[in-house]
Amino acid sequence: MPRIVILVPGKIHERVLTRLKESFDVIEADPSTLDAETAGKIRGVAVSGTFNAGAIDKLPNVELISSFGVGYDGIDAKHAAAKGVIVTNTPDVLNDEVADTTIGLLLNTIRELPRAENWLRAGNWKRGQNYPLSRFSLKGRHVGIYGLGRIGQEIAKRLEPFKVRISYHTRTRHPDSPYGYYPSLKDLAGAVDTLISIVPKTPQTHKTINAEILSALGPDGVFINVGRGWTVDEDALAQALRSGTISAAGLDVYYDEPDVPASLLDLPNAVLLPHLASGSVPTRNAMADLVVDNLVDWFGKGRALTPVPETPAKG
Ligand code: NDP
Predict the structure, then answer these.
(1) Residue from 77, 61, 70, 74 nearest 95 by CA
(2) Using CA atoms, how far apart are residues 51 and 164, in angstroms rounded to an integer?
(3) 61 and 116: one domain?
(4) What are the CA-CA distances from residue 154 to residues 58, 92, 188, 222, 309 (Å)?
(5) Angstrom distance (rounded) from CA 107 to CA 249
(6) Residue 314 predicted with pLDDT over 60
(7) Is the ipTM of this complex over 0.95?
(8) What is the predicted pLDDT for the residue at 2?
(9) What spacing in Å lies between the alpha carbon of 207 and ligand 1's midpoint?
């Protein structure tokens, strides 16, 4: 019996390809380059990055698009839903890694640890100097979490032993949460001195971290972004960091990756990471396995393991 054909439209984790080839025939190609006969054979897609409406329309018999990563803003899930195509993502298996990275980024930003290391490597310590005391401490801070979903909740749990006060903003209140709820982002930013953004890229979150929010955060303010760069007005952020409207920022994600604006690169009070929050070998392997397992379970048992909310969870 011929094997089911899966399309891999671009670069993807090597483990996805290796495991897919154990169970399926795999075509690695841009969908726009496929002839109609080949396109008609494709029943599943494994993708890391974007898969738009045009790509979906090119595949008349596609049943499931398995996307690498929990954020699936690159996939046109609404269009997929309209055509009865399931979209899956890789939630939960990366929560711990992303939350751990967030705490590391927060400490690095507040205590200026990367700058201190550069200072040591430049030979300043052995010349008899002492590294200047960091202006701030995590101790006594009030941390606001913008987005208390799967990852936001893990960040909050990790913050508890640091004895900081924790509050959050989401559209829906979590009635059983021990943390303070603010019904608007502006109220949260005004109440806290440390703001962590871990919301998805949606039309509603576009540039919501803007001059007004940064001004509300205030001169002792520290801003951390591990969600999406889309959420931040980067010009306003660079200006706020330059002028002292806020004190420091730690960023893992940017508006137009991998282009990090010079206005941020030039700032000494910004700690900048190259979108690596989930980037360890074990966590990326677990994400790769979930990409493949969604396809294996769909075609073997008729159920998708982790469908996104826009597409029906059949099976
Ligand atoms: P979830 O869907 O579990 O949580 C999202 C949270 O954001 C919810 O609490 C939701 O609450 C809140 N939210 C969504 N829209 C809004 C809004 N307009 N205003 C206020 N709050 C909002 O997602 P995860 O925690 O699993 O992941 C979050 C995002 O983190 C991903 O979408 C991805 O973009 C990013 N991410 C980044 C990584 C990195 O490498 N830096 C790695 C992994 C994820 P409510 O709906 O009630 O508003």
Answers:
(1) 70
(2) 41
(3) no
(4) 39, 10, 19, 19, 21
(5) 11
(6) no
(7) yes
(8) 85
(9) 15
Residues 83, 99 within the same domain:
no
List own/partner pairs for 123-126 with CB under 8 A and 24 or more apart: none
pLDDT at 313 (0 to 100): 66
Across residues 81-95, what is the average pLDDT?
98
Of all protein residues, whose CA lies closest to atom 11 belonging to ligand 1? 170
Distance CA 284, CA 282 (A): 6
As a whole number, the mean pLDDT across the chain is 97
Q: 110 with 201, same domain?
A: yes
Could you read off the pLDDT of 180-231 as tens digits, one per residue?
Answer: 999 999 999 999 999 999 999 999 999 999 999 999 999 999 999 999 999 9
User: Does residue 222's CB lie within 6 angstroms of at least one atom of ligand 1?
Assistant: no
Residues 251 and 288 in one domain: no
Write out the residue range of the structural domain in which residue 35 sits.
5-92+281-301
pTM summary value: 0.97
Distance CA 148, CA 174 (A): 9
CA 51 to chain CA centroid, Å, is 18
The tally of domains found in the chain comes to 2
Q: What element of type H or E holds 99? A: helix 95-111
Q: What percent of the chain has pLDDT over 90?
A: 98
Pocket of ligand 1, candidates 199, 207, 253: which has the most ligand atoms within 8 Å of its Cβ, to mutate? 199
CATH of the domain at 289: 3.40.50.720
Q: Is the CB of 203 under 6 A from ligand 1?
A: no
Query: If you compute the radius of gyration of the chain from its CA atoms, what whole number of angstroms results?
Result: 22
Tens of pLDDT along 25-76?
Answer: 999 999 999 999 999 999 999 999 999 999 999 999 999 999 999 999 999 9
Q: Whose CA is nearest to atom 22 of ligand 1?
A: 170
Cis upstream peptide for 183 (omega within 30°): no
